[in-house]
Amino acid sequence: MRILIAYPGPTHSTYDVAAGYEKALRALGHTVYGYPYHKWLNFYGESLKHWEGIYPGYVHNSGDTSLHSSEKLIIAACEFVPEAVLIVSGTVLHAHAYTLLHNLNLPILLLLTESPYEDKTQQKIVDGGGLFHAFTNERLSVERLGANGVPVSYLPHSYDPEIHRPIETTDEHASDVFFHGTLWSERAELFEPLQRLPYDVRFSGVSAARMRDSEGALVDNVDMAKLYNGAAICLNHHRTTKSMAVEDHIELCEASSIGPRAYEIAACGAFQLCDDTRTELWEVFGHSVPTYTDADDLVARIEYFMSQPLERQRLADLARLRVQGCTFENRAIEFIEPILRRL
Prior knowledge:
Elements: E1 2-6, H1 14-27, E2 31-35, H2 37-54, H3 62-80, E3 84-88, H4 95-103, E4 108-112, H5 119-128, E5 133-136, H6 141-145, E6 152-154, E7 175-180, H7 185-191, E8 201-204, H8 221-230, E9 231-236, H9 260-267, E10 272-275, H10 280-285, E11 291-292, H11 295-306, H12 309-322, H13 328-340
Parallel strand pairs: 1-2, 1-3, 3-4, 4-5, 5-6, 7-8, 7-9, 9-10, 10-11
């Protein structure tokens, strides 16, 4: 089948999801074209700024950038002539693109990556996007997002086994305790006591300036795998904050699915400690991923497992076995191809 995958716009996190499924669908024999939405966003953003400098009366906004970049998607669809369009995330794709794709009579599959944090925004896309089917990364969001009749199903997170795997690392990637991700307020508060531990504690990610040894930048997935492999303990704490703009949090009852970090750490054969808020953690990992309840409990867990290297290795090996079937390719076979066969 000929499939056009529209990349999400951001060049991290959701980009890796699009890249993973593009690679997986190719491996399964589909003809795939990946539309680089992020590149066109950058091109039109810079071009319109330049245009604004030449013509002071013109004031561009992000909507203009998104609109022009989305129109290029339609041109790509006309040239490639896909049998299906898979849009990853879709939150920064202009609404006009959905309308035009629908007018071209192209079946649209939408992979929603921001549940439950942005379900209100995603609900508008689902209801107005002329979709054939939508997937969500949070199983409790399926009923919410599908309330108005659009078929919605749960698509669990996954990983690329060529990237996330056990590898040899150097001292550059070594640490005792490591976390990568956005340091939302709840994470920063939780991790604060860790700075006083007598271990090599490393943090990386966006908005990480408060934390000791924080790199404060995005990290490529290939490098991330090295950092996971080099850490004695990887931390995996699911967020509650909805967005950077507003200090608003989801209720614990709104989320039960685990994020991609859980699968990626396990696939690397690394040991992880995780919060105990997502019920799916137990379903996927059983007792191979120890949990904590609060900052004091996390400190105690770190101190205990730092003294138990053999136990860390045993649990890490068990966790890796439990995610062997959770690759992008297997997810595509189990969840995406059955929908494609209905077209």
